[in-house]
Amino acid sequence: MTQPMMTLNDGRTMPQLGTGIWQVEDAATPAVVAEALRIGYRLIDGAAAYKNEAGMGQGIRDSGVARDEIFVTSKLWNDAQGHDAALRAFDATMDRCGLDYLDLYLIHWPLPAMDAYVETWKALIRLRDEGRVRSIGVANFHEPHLRRLIDETGVAPVLNQIELHPSLVQAPLRAVNKQLGIVTQSWTPLGRGDSFDAPAIRDAAARTGRTVAQVILRWHIQHGLSVIPKSERPERLAENFDVLDFTLTPEEMAAIDALDRGHRTGPDPDEFDYRKPL
């Protein structure tokens, strides 16, 4: 199945559809990553906070797929914000992964109360300029955070990975990302199943002969979003990948959009401070 590709604002390309490895035990990660690549995924989304970067790198090596065919993402965790700390954290990530470079490196959260994300971003720019990472971006950034990065460094992130699903459609932030030339990537794209019983989704699933999860992932794809569902089960990995050969109608898309109720499954980026309990 041909993968749709997205062009980033630095001229590079990435697959639109990938898989994430959040909450996968490090020991299980090599098999999950290798199976995903066997199915046809070419985008693997990891992070230092997931504590399975070693397994991710091993799975890539075990897969037999050429490294230059795989788009690998990792993320800087919150306790390593700041210019020099970010450089050290990147070195640690690369040691764990055992890879020569990353395709994409993200600041995981803005942490506005710490006010270190601009200096952190400058470190990522340096890593990009040194060729150690191909592209750089952010996760969970809101408009003020994005505009400050651009205003103070002149460099826009290529991608903003945000919580996005039918219960949290994020239309205003998606519009800001588009205006700034930033790809929107959806995490928790299935919303932990909280909209699976919605008639709009069940009706579309019945019409297309697909599962409700496939309908939701297709909704992301048709909105032009990059999407990274996760699963450890081979049959679910295959199901999540099989969303590229059917189409939702404009009416079905609008009906799913209308499920938005601003419901977050994770923290609000404006308030989140990892040093405090949620």
Automatic annotation (TrEMBL):
GO terms assigned for molecular function: oxidoreductase activity, acting on the CH-OH group of donors, NAD or NADP as acceptor
Which residues are marked as site: Lowers pKa of active site Tyr?
A: 75
For this protein, the record's Pfam families field holds: Aldo_ket_red
Q: Which InterPro entries match?
A: AKR, Aldo/ket_reductase_CS, NAD(P)_OxRdtase_dom_sf, NADP_OxRdtase_dom
Binding of substrate, residues: 108
Q: Which residues form the NADP-dependent oxidoreductase domain?
A: 16-260
UniProt-annotated catalytic positions: 50 (proton donor)
- Note the superkingdom of the native organism: Bacteria
State what protein this is by name.
Aldo/keto reductase
Per the UniProt record, the source organism is: Paracoccus hibiscisoli
Q: Lineage from the top down?
A: Bacteria, Pseudomonadati, Pseudomonadota, Alphaproteobacteria, Rhodobacterales
